[in-house]
Structures are given as structure tokens and as C-alpha cells.
Amino acid sequence: MKILIVDDSKMSRRLIRGILEQDLNLQTELREASNGQEAIALLEKETADLVFLDLTMPGLSGFDVLEEIKRRSFQAQVFVLSADIQTKAREKVLSLGAKDFIAKPVCAQVLREVLRSHGIINE
Amino acid sequence: MMTKPNHVLVDFPDIILNMASVGIVAVDRSFNVILWNRFMELHSQVRQEEILCRNLFEAFPEINRNWLEKKIKSCMILRIPSYTSWKQRPYLFNFKDPNRSGQFDYMHQDTSIWPIRDPYGGIQGACIAIHDVSEIAEATHLLETAMDQTLALEEANHRDGLTGLFNRRFFDEQISQEILRAKRYDWPLALAMLDLDHFKKINDTFGHPTGDTVLRSVANRLTGMLRSSDTLCRYGGEEFALILPHISKEHLLPLMERLNSAIQNNPVVLEDNTQITVTISSGVSHLQENQMAGELIHRADQALYQSKQQGRNRTSYF
Amino acid sequence: MESLTNKPSFCEDDLDAFGEIVNIAMGQAGSLLAEAFSGFVHLQVPNIRTIKWEELQKITDNLISKSSTISAVRQEFMGEFSGFIMVIYGCASYAILREILGFDDRESGEVGKRQREELLLELSNSLASTCTMKIASQLKLQCGLKPPRIVAVEQPSKDVVRTLFGPEPTWSLEQALQIDILFHLDGHDFPFELLITVSPESLPLVQKSIARLLT
Question: Residue B114: CB partners within 8 Å, gap ≥ 6?
Fold first, then answer.
């Protein structure tokens, strides 16, 4: 499974990577981007099956990335991970085509549950 | 090694209930009283059994209900403590001042309010702690009153009763300070001595009360034309001393001209509409290196003498 | 000068991790504040930096000079996570503060002045306590807050600059952490600023917490 993690925080990327590789034990091909531009550039080169996307980043925000993914019809399924847990943000990302919204801090149980509910993993 | 406290012997609710130094009131989410300790009983003269399960605001209608409800609600949502200080709101509960010193009619209170959590993480109500800070309030009040009086007294000691200008005593202190400051910061300092021309004639013609009116009017007019950093003092009889920090000769002489003409062109109007035209003579001098107050005053006085000699209503610079 | 401090300094990774923790805490604080104040209050992604006392003075001078008069409230927090919070209001609109807090007293004169002070204190406490407690709880560190107190009410900015922080603390050469959060109130022209300064004493504990969260 090809996965792209987009987050300006190194710690955040490390935490998500840790959950995917160690807790969920997924066989993945993982790439990371620390901002929106980088993410788009990586997706242009090679598509991803899953994208874990942060919302607040310097430069292109998560919302911008979602719009760009939609506009260019990239086939990736996007999961938004954000600290902005107000309902407005959740509604907005879902309307922009995100598969789901996960509140930060992310933990293994929640991530497993979400991926299972979307049929991405089946344990 | 620490020994575990014996839970059978330590009854925390009882300790809180019997606490007489701090008031503890707890309310549920509908503001019904669920805890009322000894302090509250003693100061309100309402017993626990009378108030438990009653709505706090119905039992104490003098409490500002809207304000306290809003405050408690936001502290329950945010899960943080909230405070009130006697400085902004003297009290929450209207209790008698237990100190009986007669300063205040009521107990001053600081309060803190915090949410009550249940074991499942929910918020079941709020707890209010009431601290009697009457002694602090009283001491603060006494201190403030004393300071106001000291300031007023100091102010009165520095003022001339007739004109409201600074007096000679203040001038003597101020001129020395201004000289030190001018030397420290290396800026120019000027002193002007001003004298009302023919003041004796005004007194003789119109009487002393009119002479006083003229002095007051001249003082007012001069004050209105000065910078806030300038100090105008009544030096004696009809003589004024004006300390002008941070002013060069190019600005000083035109300023003195303006003062002279303002006095000359605006006659003093008496109650019966009699107009008296007065003029002033002045002498100015800048502080020289190594000069002391006495020498500076002397030079300005000499310049004033020169103005008088040359026909009055003018300024001389020395 | 650097060599005089033997306290561990915050490296870039620590700062990144701390930034993420603060963002998460602000997300939680933002959602609580929206509930408490009916969505009137919005907070902006915080700016986090390590600073020394002298720099803090400069930053604040700069901040204050943006407005001709300012009001400010200060609040200390203590425990494992300790420091102080300064809430700086440019031109405060009391009508809007009253609306947000739902307080309806509106007297004139001396009583009115105290009611306006109370509005500043109440809003400051709500924002400062919520944000600080959320950060502390993300770090799993104990923290308590003292009551807030007024530092200035509508004073000319130039008069406040020197008095705002009081005497210089003993940690002037050491590193502190500063979190700068901008708040916007609906209908209020001026945003206001919440500065959380984390004391150098608690930085080792903060670093330990971060390390724990990363494993």
C-alpha cells in the first residue's frame, strides 16, 4: 500500500508512521511531505493509495491540497488529521472530498477503527 | 518511609464542613446548594439544613444572578477555575464585617469558583470558596487615604495661596534639581525673572483686592502659554520666576516677547468691567558651566533690572 | 553569553514537537471556547519561540507600540508546568466583551470602571486558563493558575512598556519558551494577544514529556 503523510510537524509525521508501521503492522511504502507544495509534487510523480493530511500548514493549507487533489482527479483516499476539532472544519473537509476527519492527537485505536470502517484494513 | 494515611480516620468532607476560616458553597448544575460549611452558617446565620437543596439565588436574592450564572456556566464548560476580587466586586455574599472596626459595613471577599468533576469526567456543578479579605481591604483603604492626604499636603506646601502657582520654597528645590538635570543630560536651562510694572500704582489706585485680581489674572495667562516642562513660581510680591529647561536662545527670546505682548494686549477685566492694562518686565539668563543656582538667579535679576532701567515692558538677556 | 547557561536548550525537534502539542491543545481550547462563548472567540495558530528576557521585552515593546493605549492582564501558573501569561488588549470594546461574557451590569463612574476591569479579568482568565491547562494536560504535567490581576487599563502604551513585566526575573540569561496566540472576537476590530511564557525551570520537564510522547 502506497501512503503519503503530509504534516509540517516532524513529530506528527513520526507518530503517524509509528502507528501505521508498528501498531497496525501495515506493509506499506511510506513517503512524507512537510508542506502542501511538496505533497502535490510527490503525488504528481507517483500516486498514493492513502494520504494522511494535516490542515494547518504554512503555504498551501490542507484545504488547498484537498482542492488540488480533487481538481487533478488524483485517485488517493484522503484522511484529514487536525487539531482544529470544531465542526466547521470537519464539515468543510468532508465536502472537499476527504474520506474522514480524525482529531489530533491521533492514537492507534482510533486510526485502526477509522481505517477498518472504510474497509482499508480488515482485522 | 511514608505511612499511608488512615482513610477511616480522615473524613475530608467533615473537615471542609467544619472549616470556619474559608466559606465553601457547592451548587449542582441547577444552582441548588449541595454543600454549605460552618463559615457560611456563621456569617449568613442560615443553617445547613435550611439551605441544602434550595436554589442559591432564591435563598440569596441579593446575589447578581445573571452575572454569577454566566460565570459558573463558562467555568463548567471550560473546566477551569474562575475568580472574583474585592477590588472589582467587594463581595459575593452580603455578610457583616466581622472586624467591627467601623470602616466598612460589609465583609470584603475574594472568591474562587471551580467545576466539580464526577469520577466519569463529567461536570456535576461548581464549588465556590469565599475568603474574608476585610483586613486587607481595610489596610489598603487606610494606606490609600493616607497617601492621598500626604500628596495633598505636599501639594499645598508647594503652592502659593493667592495665585495657585508654585511658591518660593518649591522654586528653591526645583531650580537646584533642574540644574543637576541640565548638567547630567547636557541640555540648556534658562531662568526668567518677571516683574509686574508699576504694581504699587495699581494697588494705590484700585485697592489691594484689585491688585490680587491682577496678580491672579497675569499668573493664569502666563501659565496657559507655557510648556508642561516649564515651572512658573511666585517668587515674591509681584515677582515671578520661570524655569525653562531644554530651550535655546533662539526660542527663548521670542517666547519672552510673546509673554510680554500677551500681558500687554489683554487687559485685566474687573467685575465692574473696568479694564486695567498691565505690562511686565523680564530678565533671562542661560545656565553657564560651573554655575550654581544663586549665580543664575543673580544674572537673571540683573537682566530684569536692566529692563526696568530701559523703560520697562521688555526683556533683557544676560 | 550562551555558555553561562547550563540548562538544556530546546533543539529544533523539541520545538517542532512542542509546537504540535500546543496546536492540539489550542484545537481543544478553541472548541471549548466556542461552546462557552457561542462561537464569538476565534484563535489563530500560535507562534512559538525560545526567548531570553531581553528579547521578551523587545517583542512586547513592539506589540504594545501597535496601539496608542492598552489594557493588560497578567496571570501566573505554577506547578510542574510554570510561567506567566500576559493578555494584551489594544483598544478594548467593552460592549463586545459584555456581549461575549453575557454580563449585563453597566454602571457609570467608579463602579463602572470596576465592572470594565472585571470584564477584562474574566475574559483573560477564561482564555489564559483554558489554553494553559490544555497545554499542561497534553504534556501530562501538573499545573495550577493564580487569580489574574490587572496591570494596565487603557494606559498610554508608552507608559506601560516599562511597567508591564515588573522587575526583571532571575532567569534573564536563561532560555524560556514563549507561545504567542492571537485572538479574534466577532465584531471586535482589534485582535488581542495572549503571551504564555514558560519558565526555564519547567523546560526540563517539558522536554521529558515530549520524549515520553514520542516513544
Answer: B75, B80, B81, B82, B126, B127
